[in-house]
Every structure is written in C-alpha cells, then in structure tokens.
Amino acid sequence: MPITMKSVLAFLTILTLFVVTTAAAAPVTYQAKDFSRLRGMKGFSDQALELHFVLYQGYVKNTNAMLETLAQIASSTPAYAEMKRRLGWEYNGMRLHELYFGNLGGDGKIPPDSKIAKRLTEQFGSLESWANDFKATGAMRGIGWVVLYEDQASGRLINTWINEHDLGHLAGGQPLLVMDVFEHAFIPDYGLKKGDYIEAFFQNIDWKAVDARLGK
Ligand SMILES: [Fe+2]
C-alpha cells in the first residue's frame, strides 16, 4: 500500500489522540512546593520554618503513598476502609499547609480598596471586628486551623475552626485565609504564647494572595 500524505496525517492524528488520552488518564503525583521565599520573615525563625516545611513535605509524601496503596489493595479489606477514612487527614494536611504558606510573606497591610477589604467590612461591620473574631477562633484550645471561608453558594464569609486537618470544613467553601494553630506552628518560637504567634501571623499576611482567592 503506497504511503500518502493523507495516510501519514491520519496516523499522526491517531497517535496524538492516543498520547493525549493516555496523559490525561495518568493519576497525579503531588509534588511538594518550595516556600523557601518565606525565610527571614519577621516573627518566624528560619529554624521553625524549616521544621514546618519538612512536616509539610511529609503530608505530600503520605498523600501520594496512600493513593498508590489504595489503588493496589483489595476493596473488601479493613486496611482499605481505614486508609479511605484517613486520606482526607493527609490530603488536607498537605493542602492547608500550601494555603497557609501561600498567604504568608506579605506586609500584613490590607489595601482598603481591595475586594477582600470591602467584603470583610460589609459582612463583619469593620475589618477590626473580622480580625477579632478570626483571632479569637485561633485562640481556642486544641490543635487545628482557622480558615476564613467564602461560602460560594451565597458569598458569605465565615471564620471557621478546623479540628486537626479534616473536621469542620465547609462543603463547597473556598478557603481565603488559612492560619495553622497546631503546636508545631508556634511553640518553637513562642512557647505557649499562642496570641503572640497569631499577631506575628497577621503582620505577615499577603493580602494580595488572599484577594486572588476570592470567587464571588
Ligand atoms: Fe503545620
């Protein structure tokens, strides 16, 4: 059979479709992001940050390991069920750290004409009222996170307490500002003075990053 330009083009089209389909079907392997730009941040020692980066990398590694294992073990086993229950803990441990580091590294000053400043003022009465509630949530006893969530169905902004990594998330909510209040986040630099850590966190918020997460 003679090789014509038409047959070559047809072959290339089929090959491209095969490559695209195969690539799209491949599961994602998560890669730890580099947050070394945060070194030197006021109120956070490099030593504490390095420790925190290593902890974060552990969540990325475990998320990948759990997803790989789940794809291989029999679904009728207790190991499968327990790993399914645990996945959200590891995954959220990974993602929440990325959001947390991602909203740090700024100067803590919220531009008054930004969308986020307007929305917080509308919904909480003033930026101060919102901040007081966010800080009070962080001061609660226990380990976890504070997340300023945007309810995407209504646009309402809600300061939310997340127990550990996985309990208390708002379904369909968009996390705007995330603060780690596990002990490893503040004890290395502040001991039991969690309030001082929260103040340091506020002085380093990157409000441009927070504003960019806003949906409605
Ligand atoms: Fe953490």
From TrEMBL:
Binding residue positions for Mn(2+): 52, 97, 180, 184
Keyword Signal among record annotations: yes
EC number: 1.15.1.1
Pfam (any one): Sod_Fe_C
Enzyme class: oxidoreductase
Entry keyword set: Metal-binding, Oxidoreductase, Signal
Gene3D superfamilies (UniProt xref): Iron/manganese superoxide dismutase, C-terminal domain
Single Gene Ontology MF annotation: superoxide dismutase activity
Signal peptide (residue range): 1-25
Domain Manganese/iron superoxide dismutase C-terminal: residue ranges: 113-213
Family: Belongs to the iron/manganese superoxide dismutase family.
Protein name: superoxide dismutase
Organism expressing this protein natively: Desulfobacca acetoxidans (strain ATCC 700848 / DSM 11109 / ASRB2)
